[in-house]
Each structure stands twice: as C-alpha cells, then as structure tokens.
Here is the input.
Amino acid sequence: MRTGPFWTHLRTPIRGLVDEIATLYEGHPISASEAFADFHVSIAPPISLRRWFRPKAQFLADGIEPFHPLPFDQALPMFEWGLNWCVATYVNHFLIVHAAVIARGGRAVIMPGAPGSGKSTLAAGLVNRGWRLLSDELTLISLEDGSSIFGLARPVSLKNESIEVMRRFAPSATLSRVVHDTAKGSVALLKPPAESIAQVAEPARPAWIVFPKYLSGLPALLEPKPKAAIMIEMAKNAFNYSTHGARGFAILADIVDSCACYKFTYAGLDEAVEIFDRLESRH
Amino acid sequence: MHTIWRVVRESPLLWRAWEGEIVVYNDASGDTDHLDPLAAEIFETLLEAPANNDELTDRIAQALGVEKTTDLRDTVASVVIRFHGHGLIEPVEE
Amino acid sequence: MTEPIGPEAEGSLPSSAAGDNPARTGRRALRRQLLVGGLATTGAMLTLPNRSALAWGGGGQNTCSALASANPSHGVKVTQPCGQPPTCWQSGSGWNAWAPGATCNGKPVSCTHTTTICSHFPQLTTSPFKCSTSYCFGQPTNQSLCFGSVPITVTCGKQNISLWNANQQQEICAAILNDCFFGDLFSSSAITDAISSCLTTVAACAVTGNSSGITTACNNLYNQCYTLNRQGGGSCQI
Here is the structure.
C-alpha cells in the first residue's frame, strides 16, 4: 500500500485489522506486484503459550520488534503508531518535523505541538472544512528544494474527548471503532476526505507555522510568535535535524523566514475554522 | 582577565537574526544556540571586531544606551564564558 | 493583530562579518528599545544539543544502515551509528559494509551522520539494510535474495552488491530459528534436524557463493514450517 512517498508491505493474519485498514485507507494505491517496499511490517499474535490467553498483537518492522506487544484489540492503533515509527526512524531523504500539516491552494500550515496540544483535532476539523490533509503527525520537507512539503494522507488519530467532538463536527466522516485503554487513552482513527487522498502526491509550500493549544472556555486567539523561538521549536521537533547538520539548519531557517508564525489557542472548532479561513484569505 | 576574544574562524557557524534575537548553528559541534537580545548583541559585537571583556562591556553599554555597571560587566563576562564553552568564540593568540 | 517581523539577517562564517550596515543598526536599535522597555534580557543562551552525538548501543560495531527510496533519483544514504565518523569504506567488518565505489540506483553511496534514533530508540542496535530488497520467505524474486529481513545480495539499480560474510551467516541462522523454530511447545526432532540440514546447506552455499542454493533449501524449510505454524503446530515433515 502506498501512502504518499512510501510503500508499506503489511503481513497480518488478523482479518479484522485487514478490514479496518481497507476502510480507512480506501483510495490509497495497493499493489500485489510492487517489488520494493520502504517498510516491511507485520502485525500478528506472537508465538507463545499466552496466545490463547489474553491474546496480544506484536508489531515487527523488518523482523525487528521495536515495541512490546499490545492487547489484540489495539492492533489498528498499533499499525498507525508503528508506521509513524518507521517513517521517523528510517527516512532521511526528507527532513521530518513532528507536526501536523494541512494545506489550501498549495500553501501549507505546519502545526507542531506536544501530544495533547490539540493539533490532531484541529487538523481533523480543518480538513473537514475545505483544507487538505497532508499529515496529522509527520511533516515531510523535501531535501531537494528545501521547501516542498509532501503528504501521507493517512488517518488522523483522535483521542478521548476529541472523538466525540469530531463525531458532532463532521457527522458524515468515517471513524474507526473506538479502541479503549491504550497508552493514550481511548483512540479512534478518522478517515481523511477523499480529496486529500487524491491529491497526496502534490506537494505544498509552507506559508504558516502555527503552534496550537486547546484551551477550553476561552475565545480563540491567534498571536504572532517570535521567530527565533519558532526556529528552536521546529529544530526540537525535527526527528532528523541533527542528521542533516548545516543543511537541516538552513532548510528550517528558510522555512521560518518564509512563514508567518503564530501561536493559536482555541476552544471550539467552528471558531478555529473561521480564523484559519481569514488567515488564508489575508495572506 | 585581558583575554581578547573573537568569533571562531575555523569551524563554520551559520546564524539567523529575527527580532533582535539570534539562532546560531555550529557545524563543528552540531549544536544550535538561541541567543536572547543581549547575548545576540554581544555575539554581533564580537563579529565586528575582537575585544577583551572590558572593551566588550564598553561597546555593549554604548550600543544599548545603558550604564556600564558591575552587573553589566559580570553579565558580559558570563556570556563570554558560555560562548567559549559552546565553541562560538576563541581567544586571540598573541 | 500585528504582523510578525520578517527576517533581518543571516550570516555564515568564515565569511564577511556583519559590519555596521543598516540592518545591523536596526537590530541594535531594537535591542536598545527592548532593554529600555524593561525586557529582562540577561544574556541567556538556550542550546539544542546535537542529538546525533550520543553513544551507540553497539559498542563499537561498525554497522551501517542504508535507506533507499523507490524514486530512482535518490541514491543510497548510508547512516552511521552515533559517534562514528562518516565513512562507508569498511572492509570486511560488519555484514552491511559497503565496498569503495559502491553505487545504488546509479548514484554513488553517500554517507551522512547519524540519526536521532540513538536518542529516541536506544534499544535499536541494528538497522535493516535495504536497497531494493524483498523477502525470500514465500516471495523469491530475481532481483535480490534474502532471508527474512537479512539481505544476502542487494540490487541497487543494475549493480549487485554482495554482503556475504560470516556475520551474515549468523544472522541467517537467527532468522531461520526465529521463524521456523516453534519453541518448547512445538519442538520436534524433525524440525531441529531440518534446520541443521538447512544451516549446513547455507554454510556450504555461502562458501561457493551459491545464493540460489541457499534460497531453495531454506525456502522449503520455511514454507513447511510456516504452513504448520499457521495451522497451529505439529511436527514438520520434511
């Protein structure tokens, strides 16, 4: 299966997982004959005495087990986390920032943020109101030109209260079943709009860097953020910044130069969409 | 006490300035430093010409329109130590 | 809402220093304003350290991991473990050493420094070696030959690069045992005998460079064990 620039070969005996992936990844190319895959992963019950008692799912990437096995019903989020790990670990022909990224009209908003900052929920809301999803977790910056951002258009991971928020905000969007008791609480995956998947091969140019923060009960606020601090945050959030040395510094600095940079606090998606629409129409 | 300092010449430094602050990447160490406005001014002052701590303090006080107090002298001295420790500046050999 | 201030200056050294130009004058004036305005600027410096300069868990092993893209315009980038100098010209040490002049997808192999995986995933001690690889278990190809995740030859564009050495044989034995040996629950003398036989064939073929012999011998073993594994166990009948 191809997601953006990467082919993933998945081997799994778990029928339910196959069905869930088929639903959430509908629209991504699948090929039985593709000879090369960037990532070879498998998700299966480990061979052990325990496999009949509290069954678990084990994730392997190229035969390596990077995580402890998880309860069997967490196979789907495990697949997502595992793929994120594969990209973050093995890919060095992009500069990769741990950030959500969406786009409209070829211009991208990069949204770095710690887990729990609300960036995935914000991304999910915006892509259901006319923005294109490139990724909810991984911003891939081309090393060739230092500015094109490539997307993955993979499902958006929602947690806990944000699941119900999205159900109400986008009732026609496809959501996976909710998986409870994961390390991140309750998790569900939101299928991106078909247009996002259809356009996944089109890069976007960075135009804004926005640090989101969900803060309940307060009106949304978009404020300029000093660029030197943005630069350091981007470098901190770039998995392979140190790998690329001076080139990594130059790429991120150029992007910070060319972007309008903000911090954004929000409590509701409707207000957030309005502000982002105004931001896009103003620049 | 009278060491003359200059920004390192052998190792490549890349830097960008935004809103009075500076972010500098040191290719020898791979470290990235974020300098606040005062540290940024000290860095740029040494970029312009080497100086010992006294001269540097003089130039900073004049540039920023502040008094040359003991506090300022001590602050400049501690920034110089940190810059040296991070490989951004080096003593000028006599 | 104010607009953010755009970039003011950039520089690199050794090259011309900033000098007293309008931009420099402007920055100085801004800093003066900030101080007068009461900004508590203390000469602070925050450092983001080089995250690749951390110890690698391999204890001095010279392992390289190669990443390749399906896009033929990319060459292979060989990533060294943390703390190792960037060199690809390892002779004879490590099963994924590159010979001088190696190319992939028609481009020379280039070396970069390490990844942040050392700090984020310190349990990782080896990385897969990939360049147009595929797996032999159940999927033999005519492009490259592998066992499990361990490639024995890698095809990069039109060039075959052999990685065959004693360390790889160890890896292959481990891969076979991992995938075919059922552990205490399903052990049988037939399986252990079959594995021993396969390993002997692997060793013999390694000496002669007969990769296809290895593929055949161990694919057979694997397929039979895999089938029985999926059925829930039992003795392997070879």
In short: The radius of gyration of chain A is 19 Å. Helices of chain A lie at 15-24, 75-90, 119-127, 161-169, 194-198, 227-236, 241-258, 269-282.
